[in-house]
Structures are given as structure tokens and as C-alpha cells.
């Protein structure tokens, strides 16, 4: 079997496994889809003010009638200066439009987040004269986890974050808020096949490590020099089988307490810090 044929086989197996898991969990997915988060809306006063200072294009703003105090005044003033429509609506309208009840009386419609290609992430590393440092998120579903990971990634010098198109949260208002603005400074790529992307990264000299409590080596003893890709699995199921098989190595984080697992974003943060230490 040629190298090309082997890649096709891996891709086929990945898609087959995804289809099987999707069919098995369809009832749960249907429930989630009823509450699907609108990625074209951000809410809350600070996230909207941060959006004004970013590359995000704010198309229009909805504010609760009569709520024109504090930072709402600043938001309305900036919007007026930039010619952004501001519409006063009943608070119940905001409750319907917003992704969460914590909208603080203001919601902004934005141009959809612009994802990049994996090649763009590698180009960022090359432009900086650095070895690639990439986070690969294998079906992270909690927007708070994604936002926290992006925030830590930006602080630790990660060049880009890769997420799958299916069975994964995308960049939405909760991610914007949780990342504390780091989304505006992080390249994020949304891909069809994580396993295939890992192959592509390997060809570019990136050594890919998966995170698992039953790892082959411990994080503080692992040599993270060179190009690095860190894979964090789903909050409940961990790494999918094919993605795990594609990793060059599996690392674990040593723990001495009675609880033997970590939140996905916390585990990601610890591992990113270990990579950053090796580069300081």
C-alpha cells in the first residue's frame, strides 16, 4: 500500500467512525441543536467594547429600551461615531436573540468569524522565525473550555488552534467573553478531518502529542523542543480512537491528589506552559 493510499484509508476510517458516533448519539445531538449558539452574535458590555478594538466588524447593536447608563453610553457613542446602527428593543427581544441570559442589556451582530487555513498557522510561525506550536482540539464542546484554551494559548505563544467542523463548539459569544479578547489575536482553523490534519502537520516537522491520563510519558519529563502539536480530547470521551493512533506520543500530567482527572482547559493550560518553558 502506497503512502497516498494509506492516507485515504485513514481518512475513510475517520469519517466512518464519525458517522457511527453521530448516529449513536443522535438524540443528544438533536437536543443540543435546539439550543444551537449563533456565532454571529456577541453579547455583554465588555465583549462588545473589545470587539470595537479588534478586527471584528460590528454590523448593528441592539440595546434594551431605557438602559442607557454606564458602559452602555460608551457603546452607543462609539457606534454613533462609526455609523453602526443602534436599535432599542424590548428586553424580551434580547432574551430571544442572545445566546445566554447574561447579555447585560446589549447584543451586537457581527460579521462571521473568519477562520484561517492550517497553512496560515504554519506561515505565522515561519514569519516569527519559530518552530510551529499548535493546539489541536478533538471535539471540545463547551464554549467556556474553548475560550479558556484560546486565552491561555495566546499567552503561551501558540501560533494557532485547530478545531473540527463537526461535533465541536465554534467561535461564539461565550468564547469571545471567556477568552477575554484573545480570540482577536489567535489564528483558528476549522477543519473537516483532524486525523488528516495531523498527518499534514507531521509532514511539516511537527511532533504531535495527545493528552491522556494513561500517557507513555509525563509532561514535565517530555522534550517539547522543535515543532509541537498538542491534542486535547473531548471533555467526556477524551481522544477519539483514530486521533489517538495518529499521535506521535501520549503524555500525561502527574497528579498526587485523590481526583484523577482535570478539566480540559486546565489540562491544556498545564501542557501549553510546559511547551512554553522549553522555548523561553
From TrEMBL:
<protein>
    <submittedName>
        <fullName>23S rRNA (Guanosine2251-2'-O)-methyltransferase</fullName>
    </submittedName>
</protein>
<feature type="domain" description="RNA 2-O ribose methyltransferase substrate binding">
    <location>
        <begin position="41"/>
        <end position="116"/>
    </location>
</feature>
<dbReference type="InterPro" id="IPR029064">
    <property type="entry name" value="Ribosomal_eL30-like_sf"/>
</dbReference>
<dbReference type="InterPro" id="IPR029028">
    <property type="entry name" value="Alpha/beta_knot_MTases"/>
</dbReference>
<dbReference type="GO" id="GO:0005829">
    <property type="term" value="C:cytosol"/>
</dbReference>
<keyword id="KW-0808">Transferase</keyword>
<dbReference type="GO" id="GO:0032259">
    <property type="term" value="P:methylation"/>
</dbReference>
<keyword id="KW-0489">Methyltransferase</keyword>
<feature type="region of interest" description="Disordered">
    <location>
        <begin position="1"/>
        <end position="33"/>
    </location>
</feature>
<dbReference type="GO" id="GO:0006396">
    <property type="term" value="P:RNA processing"/>
</dbReference>
<dbReference type="InterPro" id="IPR001537">
    <property type="entry name" value="SpoU_MeTrfase"/>
</dbReference>
<dbReference type="InterPro" id="IPR029026">
    <property type="entry name" value="tRNA_m1G_MTases_N"/>
</dbReference>
<dbReference type="GO" id="GO:0008173">
    <property type="term" value="F:RNA methyltransferase activity"/>
</dbReference>
<dbReference type="InterPro" id="IPR013123">
    <property type="entry name" value="SpoU_subst-bd"/>
</dbReference>
<dbReference type="Pfam" id="PF00588">
    <property type="entry name" value="SpoU_methylase"/>
</dbReference>
<dbReference type="InterPro" id="IPR004441">
    <property type="entry name" value="rRNA_MeTrfase_TrmH"/>
</dbReference>
<dbReference type="Pfam" id="PF08032">
    <property type="entry name" value="SpoU_sub_bind"/>
</dbReference>
<dbReference type="GO" id="GO:0003723">
    <property type="term" value="F:RNA binding"/>
</dbReference>
<feature type="compositionally biased region" description="Basic and acidic residues">
    <location>
        <begin position="8"/>
        <end position="33"/>
    </location>
</feature>
<comment type="similarity">
    <text>Belongs to the class IV-like SAM-binding methyltransferase superfamily. RNA methyltransferase TrmH family.</text>
</comment>
